[in-house]
Amino acid sequence: LAPAYDPLMRLCGWTSAQRTVLTTSDGSVLDVGCGPARLADAAHGPYVGVDVRWAMLTHARSRVVCAEAAALPFPDRTFDTVVSTAFLGLLSPDCRHPILCEMARVCWQRIRILEPVRPLSIPLRALTLSRQPLDIAELCDAGWRVRSVGPRIYAGAYTLVTAEPRAQSR
Fold this sequence. Notes:
Layout: H1 2-11, H2 14-18, E1 29-32, E2 47-51, H3 54-57, E3 64-66, E4 79-85, H4 93-106, E5 107-115, H5 122-128, H6 136-141, E6 144-153, E7 158-165
Parallel strand pairs: 1-2, 1-4, 2-3, 4-5
Antiparallel strand pairs: 5-7, 6-7
């Protein structure tokens, strides 16, 4: 799938949609579940992508790390912004929790994700290939303070969620 990923994502408009996670970001960026790390081109500061699939990372043109998202190899509060697009919805809530906690741990200022979020109709779930859409309560349980939910983009199937690590909440 890795060689066909970029052309397919550009063709279906996903590449443009996923860049919304970086529209208000400055400073360092960690992209969790980055695939071929195409968000690097839109980052306004230093970018690091993390993915467990080495085949996807070999197509990256930026700094990438092959690692498990549930055990990020970075110190606490390393990155100004942590982002993720269309990765968390592929996982069950049990698998997502440690990843969401790790994202909050390494984040300094903001977390921005673009994922299917409940409630989501069955046709939209099919469009996203999501196993289970996220529930906002999952984010709070993992140490996030949710600042905004929305807008829904990409045919209304994905929602932009902005949060901050609870330690940074004002």
